[in-house]
């Protein structure tokens, strides 16, 4: 099973996906109806800002994308 599919299975939050303030890159692609590989490429190129919240051990966790960063990146693409 791919990482994208396993992330969807592990999502136990009660907050609807579209109402969250931050997502994993795969979730952000789903919310904005974009190609996951395109979002990942933008992150790797530095065009889309991400952050890594601490995990339960205090080390950097998985990459997250904020709603503000997604909106800023999309506005930049439209110009």
What brief labels describe this structure?
single chain; mainly alpha; two-stranded antiparallel sheet; about 45% helix; about 5% strand
Describe the 3D structure.
- The chain is mainly alpha-helical.
- It has one domain (22-78).
- The chain is built from four helices and two strands.
- The chain has helices spanning 3-10, 25-31, 36-45, 67-78, and strands at 22-23, 65-66.
- The N and C termini lie far apart (37 Å).
Low-confidence stretches: none
As a percent range, the share of strand residues is: 5-15%
User: Strands of the largest sheet, in order across it?
Assistant: 1-2
User: What is the residue-mean pLDDT, rounded to a whole number?
Assistant: 88
**How does the overall form come out from the CA principal axes?**
globular
Q: Give the class from helix and strand content and strand pairing.
A: mainly alpha
* Major sheet details: 2 strands, antiparallel
Distance between the termini: 37 Å
Give the topology string: H per helix, E per strand: HEHHEH
Gyration radius, in Å: 13 Å
Determine the oligomeric state from the structure: single chain
The count of β-strands is 2
Q: Domains counted in the coordinates: how many?
A: 1
Number of helices: 4
Helix content: 40-55%
Protein name: Helix-turn-helix domain-containing protein
Organism: Bifidobacterium saguini DSM 23967
Write the layout of secondary structure elements.
Layout (H helix, E strand, L loop, with lengths): L2 H8 L11 E2 L1 H7 L4 H10 L19 E2 H12 L1
Antiparallel strand pairs: 1-2
Helix pairs in contact: 2-3
Task: Please provide a brief summary of the model.
By secondary structure, this protein is mostly helical.
């Amino acid at each position: 099973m791919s990482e994208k599919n396993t992330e969807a299975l592990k999502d136990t939050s009660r907050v609807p996906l579209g109402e969250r303030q931050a997502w994993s890159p795969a979730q952000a692609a789903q919310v904005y109806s974009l190609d996951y590989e395109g979002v990942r490429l933008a992150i790797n190129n530095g065009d889309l800002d991400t952050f890594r919240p601490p995990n339960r051990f205090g080390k950097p966790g998985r990459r997250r994308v904020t709603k503000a960063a997604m909106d800023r990146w999309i506005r930049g693409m439209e110009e």
